[in-house]
Structure formats: C-alpha cells, structure tokens
Amino acid sequence: MTLRIADSAGVTQTGNVRRSNEDSYLMRSPLFMVADGMGGAQAGEIASRICAEAFAEADLVRGAPADVLRETIRTANRRILERSRSDPDAAGMGTTVTAAFMDDAGTIAFAHVGDSRAYLLRDGSLQRLSDDHSLVGELVRKGELSETDAEHHPQRSVITRALGTDESVEVDSFAVRAQDGDLFLLCSDGLNTMVPEAAIADILAGGGAAAKVARDLVRAALAGGGEDNVTAIVFRVGETAAEDGEGAGAAAHDGRTHILPPGLDDEDRDDEGGGPRARTIVALIGAVALALLLAVGAVVGLRESHFIGADTSTGRVAVYQGVPFDLPFGVHLYHVVYESTLSYATLTPRQRKTLFDHTLRSQSGAMSTLHPYEVASP
Fold first, then answer.
1. 304: closest CA among 315, 320, 291, 290?
2. Is the pLDDT at 244 greater than 60, yes or no?
3. Do the Cβ atoms of 193 and 156 come closer than 8 Å?
4. Are 307 and 359 in contact (CB under 8 A)?
5. Alpha-carbon gap, residue 159 to 47, rounded angstroms
6. CA-CA distance, 4 to 240, in Å (whole number)?
7. What torsion do the CA atoms of 192, 196, 201, 206 make, to the nearest 10 degrees?
8. How confident is the model at residue 318, as a pLDDT?
9. Quick check: helix, strand or coil at residue 232?
C-alpha cells in the first residue's frame, strides 16, 4: 500500500455579484492549482488563464517538486507581463496562485503568491497552510490587526504580492508530509471571505466524496453573499494499492470551468440565498438600511469624510466618500468619488501602508495626498 491522491474535485462559480469569472483552476493529479485574476475589464481572467496554461505545460518529471512549482510560477509571471505590455486592454493585470504537487514519497509541495489559500484538515482539525500576501494579512502578522477585524476590513482584498506586477516575483514554498485521510483545500478568497473558517472546517469534516465537499463549500459561499468569484479544489490522500495508479483523482481538468453545482437549480438558489428572489429581498433590506445610515451620516457630516483606498474591481487607487466600514447585507458606508489611473499593484508595501491607512480627510486633502504618487507613477 502507498499514499496517493484517492479523490479530488474542483468547482468554480462567478458568484452573485460579479459579471464574469476571473478565477481559473487546474487539476492534473497529483498537481492542483487555483489562480484568482485581477485587473480592469476581463484582464484578470486573461492573467489567471495564462497562469493555468503554464501549469498545464509544466514538466512534472524533471526536478524537485518545489523547484518545478516555483519555476512554473516565474514562467507564468513572465508571460503575464509580456501580454500586459503588448495589449493595452490587459495593462496592469495580475493574478494570485496557490499550487500543490504530491510526489511518489507522499510529500506535498506547495507554492504560493497572493491571497488564495491552502488548507489541511487532519484528524478533524483545520490548519491554514498559506500566508495571505495582502495588506490586512501583513497587519495581522505584525499584531496591528486582529483576525476578527481582518475578516471585515474594507481593504481585505488589497494584495501586496501577485504575478504580473514586476519582473521578479517572490514565491512562498513549503512542504507537508501527507498522512492517510488528509483532506486538502485550495481556494480563491471568494470562499474564505464569505465563509468563516469554522464553517469551512465543518464542511470539510462532513465526509463524502471530494465533489460533494467542493460543491458544499461553494454553496456556502453563495449563501454567504457570493460577492466574489469562488473556486474550491478538494483532494484527499489515502492508501491505495500500487496498481490502482492515481485512483479516483486521475481525471485531469485544466483552466476554468463554469458549472452549477448539481442540485442547485434556480429554485434551490432562491432558497439558499443565491437566486433572484433572495437577492431582491437582500437588496430591499440593504436599501432601507443604507437610507437610514445615510440619514444619520448626514447629521454627523459623513459627506465631508473621505479616505484613500483600492478599488479591487479595477485594480486602481481611488478616493472614497464616507467611512471605511462594511455592514451586513453588502451595505457599504462609502462610495468612489475619484478613480486614479494609478494601479495599486505597482505600489510598494510602504506606499500602500501610507495611502491605505484610512485616515479621514476632506476631498481636497485626499486628492492632495494622492497627487504626488500619481505624478511619480510611470
């Protein structure tokens, strides 16, 4: 008997809010990869697809697994940069990537850039294996922000490391010695921002085939709001006879597949909070709440408050009117009043920390603070 990938499955969904899916994933057992693209228009979709294609072409035979993963990420980074420079519509695009590869000895190598995540469920306990390369992730690691506050921080999607933003890319790599029964999850942040880790652990521990677990995770993200594209790859390690080969996980699926989880038809989606009827109710509740909050805000001078942040839908720095807080039902106490041509991916970590400190300013004060960065940007 030997340890192999016994079962695997992947699911991706556009979500309840976004118009297109910028996530891509690849399953080429024992290689798995999730990429979450970013950029204006459909550039994020292009970046994540380029990354998936690089992994589809990776030579898994030659070299140590960790070296293969890192080199593949560097190849993807180079291709994304070349495309963004040659195609004006793709300028400024980038992507995260989290990849895993299991060798014949039962060791799983990981390579990671960005805020997509890798998890391990072992003996009923969930472990987050990867670190988020994000603004709030850095603040949490420095002790300046709690995990609870990070979950609701309005700039939680601002990443500090990605493919396609620089000539070189720093790649985190690590390895885990697998055990019989280990269950691994690779996911885009559309899952963990909508579903608490305790709930993720419960779903992973619920048992069943990998396909069912992946569907249940995506359903939970949709029911939690589905504010972003969501992708989940689940693979289980088990002892199998050598002649069984890769077992149930041998099927290969590359790139991105839009699928509606089985059993999740239109009526089910309404009932679970993902369909038009449920979204209409949520929108009405949100509209009422927003009207009340704006009325209160007007009294305390909410209109005079502005801050600098990152518009994650466009990848650019923006000036917002309001205060940097999110409420339930997708209600935001802020909106964009000025979108800069400056891409936040081109800023250094120090510059991001200075700009995105959420200091409340007048609109002219925010514009004056931002202006020198725009002048210095190429």
1. 320
2. no
3. yes
4. yes
5. 15
6. 7
7. -100
8. 85
9. strand
What is the CATH number that goes with domain 2-272? Answer: 3.60.40.10
Give the whole-angstrom CA distance, residue 307 versus residue 292: 22
Q: What is the pTM of this model?
A: 0.69
Res 261 pLDDT > 70? no
Q: Are 249 and 5 in contact (CB under 8 A)?
A: yes
Count of other CB atoms within 10 angstroms of residue 363:
16
Residue 116 confidence (pLDDT) above 80? yes
Structure tokens at 89: 């519509």
Nearest C-alpha neighbor of 369 from the set 299, 318, 300, 301: 318
Q: Which residues contact 134 (CB under 8 A, 6 or more apart)?
A: 114, 115, 156, 157, 158, 159, 160
CB 133 within 8 A of CB 159: yes
Sheet of 331-343, strand order: 306-311, 316-327, 331-343
| Average pLDDT of the chain, as a whole number | 81
Give the three-state DSSP class for 43.
helix
Alpha helix ranges (H) inside the chain: 43-56, 65-86, 135-141, 147-151, 189-192, 197-205, 210-223, 266-272, 276-299, 349-355, 363-376
Among residues 73, 66, 70, which one has the least CA distance to residue 94? 73
- Both tokens of 256, joined, read 């991105």
Which residue ranges does the chain devote to CATH 3.60.40.10? 2-272
Nearest CA to 327 out of 272, 289, 294, 270 is that of 289
- Specify whether the CB–CB gap between 94 and 345 falls below 8 A: yes
Contact assessment for residue 316 and residue 310, using Cβ atoms and an 8 Å cutoff: yes
For residue 128, the cross-strand partners are 119
CA distance 255 to 9: 13
Residue type, 87: D
* pLDDT tens digits for range 56-109: 999 887 789 999 999 999 999 999 999 999 998 888 899 999 999 999 999 999
CA distance 349 to 87: 27
CA atoms within 13 A on the CB side of 244: 15
